[in-house]
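Limitations

Structures in this collection are predictions, not experimental determinations, and the ligand pose is part of the prediction. Treat each record accordingly. The example that follows, with 6-O-phosphono-beta-D-fructofuranose as the small molecule, is included so readers can see exactly what is and is not provided: the inputs are given verbatim, and the output is the predicted complex.
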Amino acid sequence: MTTSITPLKQLAAWKALEAHFATISNTPLRQLFAEDPTRGERLNSEAVGIFLDYSKHRITDETLKLFFQLAEESGLSAKIEAMFRGDKINITENRAVLHTALRAPRSASILVDGADVVPPVHEVLDKMAKFADSIRSGSWTGYTGKPIRNIVNIGIGGSDLGPVMAYEALRHYSIRELNFRFVSNVDGTDFAEAVHDLDAEETLFIISSKTFTTLETMTNAHSARVWALAKLKEHAAVAKHFVAVSTNAAEVSKFGIDTANMFGFWDWVGGRYSMDSAIGLSTMVAVGPDGFRELLAGFHEMDEHFRTTPFEKNLPVLMGLLTVWYNNFFDAQTVAVLPYDQYLKRFPAYLQQLNMESNGKHVTLDGRTTDYQTGPIIWGEPGTNGQHSFYQLIHQGTKLIPCDFIGFYKSLNPLGHHHNFLMSNVFAQAEALAFGKTAEQVHAEGTADWLVPHRTFEGNRPSSVILAEKMTPATLGKLVALYEHSVFVQGTIWQIDSFDQWGVELGKVLAQRIIPELESAEEPVLKHDSSTNALIKRYREHKRK
Ligand code: F6P
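Predicted complex:
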């Protein structure tokens, strides 16, 4: 536990923000824009090729000034330095938080417990590159001599969501001769459907698990071994069809994978921050070592921007503080992330773990219960699909939902008017949310009186627009790092440990207790609450029928 921290609500800037909120909370964006014709050109920031328009937020220059003051009073600059330096800022697990070291250049030096972590990072990257090249070139063959055509990543949480998201995002750059599949769910359907049309002789499994003890991953990994050996027969085939990504060499060899075919990482890499560690092995096989290094370079550019840029122009700082503004002052419960790029279809799901596992906490670093809200619920779908399902609620519902629109100037698949149509929707949705359509406007269109309220849009719904040139490995790295650091900014303001995840433990422990109760031949003596007892009994009865 750290020494006591001044509670958030007692900070001078927080109190000033409360007073300020009372003065502007009802000011419509229409008015803010009318009063300042330069607002749309002024309230933005561009760095490392990422442009952020934050003019359609319910803020004034005063709001920003107070938030920068809050960031200072919260010690954000020192916290950023502490993270990059390798201090053990994950206090409940006594760990450094150094995903930024995974993308540091070879020339960098970062010490953890007196040892430089940069050389081992590059050793692993070099080993991954050799492996990826051998798969891509066909020189790594399966046990029966056939080249590998299918890569199946088995992992869950951070050992799955990053690899899936990155594979989808970078599909344009990926080797088309290889099939990539991702298995995460302990539901046997996930594994069965992933392999049903694959030939074991041509299939390589990457077992990705930081701990190598996760129930879902190990269950799927054992089923994969049974499936592969049913065709390949010899146990020696495992060495040609299974590799591991893990920090746990002992468990990897216990499973039967030669540790020569293991790609390591370190306890200072959190699961949800691991897509650019060896957990990205499937990404590297897909896009090649050069593509992967481009991805890392993109991450690093955003890291440097975050570390060195004054708050006023700092993209992750601006985004993080805006999230706090709506979460804590407007009582917004969620943030919608809306990528207008099909390649980013898994980005919202990736961000769910990044944000919600990081900032879904209610105890501060010094052990108090927060008397304010912390991490918002993250959700979203790629545009324009969402427009035809849930946007109705964002436009006219009763909830305030800040939105992040993400779009690109250029499409990787230019096709007639598609891209202009796509991007026109980004700009139109942000405009409609902010400015709506008044009753007078609806009336003037000749709408019957009784219908006017239904067709009126009150507007005043905030959004950010994030733009970049086009989807590339480097762009993806910059976008992910942007959100990683925004999450860090939010956690710093809320005074929580954004890097532990104790909240996932209890369910895991209880499931371990229930497994034998579902599987035992004898009727078990159930000692749960009456609801859980009844559910287990019912399941056993119906399973038997
Ligand atoms: O769900 C909790 C969690 O520990 C995540 O933080 C992590 O990404 C995931 O499980 C998978 O863990 P592992 O890589 O150890 O299998």
